Amino acid sequence: MSFSLKQLKTLKMNEKLTLEYINNEYNLNAYLVKDEFSSYDAECKDYIIEIKNRRKYYKEKLIEANKLFANYNKAQIKNKDFLYLVTDEKGVYVFNISKNIEEIINKKLVPISCEATTKFKNDKIITKYSYILEEKLCKKI
After folding, report:
1. Nearest 5°: phi and psi at 122?
2. Is the pLDDT score of 5 beyond 80?
3. Counting CB atoms within 10 angstroms of each CB, which of 8, 66, 133, 137 has the fewest?
4. For the segment 64-110, what is each residue's pLDDT rounded down to a tens digit?
5. CATH code, domain carrying 80
6. Looking at residue 48, what DSSP letter applies?
7. Alpha-carbon span 92 to 88, nearest angstrom
8. Longest Cα pair distance anywhere in the chain, in angstroms?
9. In terms of Cα–Cα distance, which of 95, 33, 40 is closest to 62?
10. CA 38: distance to chain centroid?
11. In angstroms, what CA-CA distances link 16 with 3, 13, 31, 77?
12. Statement: residue 8 has pLDDT above 60
């Protein structure tokens, strides 16, 4: 399936559609991982990729600290870079966490109260610690 960024913005985005778009634009040959409990969504020869599809635009993008460190470590072990892709109504934001790790972790951790998980039914509210990713650290497509 091939579609434009304009079409992408009108679709109800999910990991599969985001990956198809990125593969078409950049010829990555990335694929979704089969393990539903994996800390990341996709990978290819050079990258492990976490995808966050947002329904609305937020100037500041967040990444959970536990995902940042887990995926950064996995990327190092696999000799790959860790990409964090965020989609929203204004576009696709590609953060190369591996190349910006020092700048990111030197920021203050932000506590956020939210549901324990959004993938599985769970009404328990917990505090998740996140880093704010400034748009200057990404490539917007």
Report:
1. -160, 115
2. no
3. 66
4. 999 999 999 999 999 999 999 999 888 899 999 999 999 999 999 99
5. 3.40.1350
6. E
7. 7
8. 40
9. 95
10. 13
11. 13, 8, 9, 25
12. no
Query: Tokens in use for 99?
Result: 């190349």
Give the bridge partners for 126, in sequence order: 114
Q: How is 85-112 classified by DSSP, letter by letter?
A: EEEETTEEEEEEHHHHHHHHHTSPPEEE
Distance CA 54, CA 125 (A): 20
88 bridge partner residues:
91
Task: State how many domains the chain has.
Answer: 1
Q: What is the dihedral of CA 59, 15, 82, 133, to 10 degrees?
A: 10
Domain that holds residue 120: 5-140
Q: How many residues are there in the chain?
A: 141
Q: Identify the pLDDT of residue 118.
A: 62
